[in-house]
Amino acid sequence: MPSLVKSGAVKSDSLYAPHGSLYDSVLELIRLCSTTLPPDIVKSLSNALSTEEGGSIAKNVLDSVLSNIEMAKSGSTPICQDTGSLAFYIHYPLGVSQIKLRALINEAVQEATKKQYLRPNVVDPISGKNTGTGVGLETPHIHFDEWDKDEIEIRLILKGGGCENVGIQYALPHSDLGASRSNDGVQKVVMDGVHKAQGMGCAPGIIGVGIGGDRITSMEIAKRQLFRKIGNRNHDPVIAEMETELVANLNKLGIGPMGFGGISTALDVFCGVIPRHPATYYVSISYNCWALRRYTMTISYDRDNGTLGEASYD
Amino acid sequence: MIKLTTPISEKDIRALKVGDQVLLSGTIVTGRDAAHKYMVEDKPDFIRPYLLDGVIYHCGPVVKKDDSTGEYSFVSAGPTTSRREEPYQDTVIDEYSIRGVIGKGGMGDRTAAGLQKTGAVYMHAVGGAGSAIAANVSEVSKVFMLDEFGTPEAFWVINVVDFPVVITMDSHGNSLHKDVFEKSEKNLAKLLGKA
């Protein structure tokens, strides 16, 4: 059987070296996420500002939010002191070592914590002790997928604890809400979930919805929707319409920025669908605060020469 | 805009009402999940002088330590969700004679009753505005329980200047959070076709 891996293909363990080019790029990815809100979110918040009534608390809140975003970016300081839990989603070409990549990421997270791009957020549930380093057992979460491109793609989301707390999962049918196993039922439970969150998840939120799957995969698909850009619609026109309707209806609830009342309760809703078991029908909501901190880093990697390209961030 | 400086008298607190916008100055103390449980279960005395007629801030900051001087400063310091302290807050307010609680998301009926009884208010800061609020923190003067609770959950005694907050729960039983919840609940019922 011909080997796809030529001998000496991964020449350089230097790929994984601390302060090497990949390490520096990952550190920059973390800094960028923590300090610089993605342009699509900033634009959406500016649009939300223009919809709120002049002189209202809602408008003042969004004004403060936007000036904070500017201050964080210019001073390279965390937008929010809760720099969240880190989840990395990685695509890598054949020949790259998961073990070494994980070690590199752990190093970069610790360095980012020392540089105050991240707050140490890793606490032992039993002893209550904070590791202080930003890393711990299976933390940060890293998901690996191999692909056939000559590129390493690293997506990172910093998800705050306040908005994680208001996430919720429903099993359909839900009799109290009159929610059946239908698109209408899905919409009803999403409305209920966002209503329950009130301002506690730092509205206006970005709502990731997972439809189908099991208890775990349903929530996972919901969270992954948060990488979609504001305004992006599901490729399935039926789901796309549901997303559009949900945004419009959520913004009729009157919860508003930080729950002070007002128009903008949700900046967008993204639904993802995966198959379910005949007996189950889960709808999971991954609520993200207005400070949706996520970027995708792409870097070309020529495994024959062991050379890395320039990292780009989107 | 109303300007207040800690320590604050009961009279000044009773004069505040929901919707008032306040610029807060003086010494305040951060305390969140571990701190509230501790204040109820162990009633530590070391924090009393800083909380008497003072303000507790639900906040887990990003903190920088200057290695040469050993001094701390806040890098990012917005509010955390207050609702988790609901089982503790009324006891803490009463035990330590606190006049103000800063946080985000509001609190429930039990805290509302505690605010009314002791003469205190809930002050809402802008969630996520970590960098902007850190600029209002002029000094980090002391820290307690840093080793035990870690950076986010320690008691940080800080001085603030013109920290912008909105009164969303006053000492007369009014709550903006309750009002918004009830209104949005009616809207939800309409949208679900139940009203």
Describe this structure in words.
Chain A is of the alpha+beta class. Chain A has two domains: 132 residues, 2-Layer Sandwich (60s Ribosomal Protein L30, Chain: A), CATH 3.30.1330; 127 residues, no CATH class. Chain A contains eight helices and ten strands. In chain A, strands 1, 2, 3, 8, 9 and 10 form a six-stranded mixed beta sheet that branches. In chain A, strands 4-7-5-6 form a four-stranded mixed beta sheet. In chain A, helix 6 runs parallel beside helix 8. Chain A is globular, with a radius of gyration of 21 Å. Chain B is an alpha/beta fold. Chain B has a single domain, classed as Alpha-Beta Barrel (fumarase). Chain B is 33% helix and 29% strand. Chain B contains eight helices and nine strands. In chain B, the strands form two sheets. In chain B, strands 2-3-6-7-9 form a five-stranded mixed β-barrel. The radius of gyration of chain B is 17 Å and the shape is globular. Chain B starts with a strand and ends with a helix. The interface between A and B is large, with 55 and 54 residues.
Q: Oligomeric form of this entry? A: heterodimer
Instruction: Examine the coordinates and then state which fold CATH places here, giving the name of the CATH topology of chain B.
Output: fumarase
Which architecture of the largest domain in chain A does the CATH hierarchy give at level 2?
Answer: 2-Layer Sandwich
The arrangement of helices and strands of chain A along the chain is: HHHEHEEHEHEHHEEEEE
N-to-C SSE string of chain B, H for helix and E for strand:
EHEHHEEEHEHEHEHEH
Overall form of chain B? globular
CATH class descriptor of chain B: Alpha Beta
The greatest interface between two protein chains, and residues involved on each side, is: A-B, 55 and 54 residues
What share of residues of chain A is helical? Answer: 25-40%
Number of extended strands of chain B: 9
* Number of H/I helices of chain A: 8
Structural category of chain B: alpha/beta
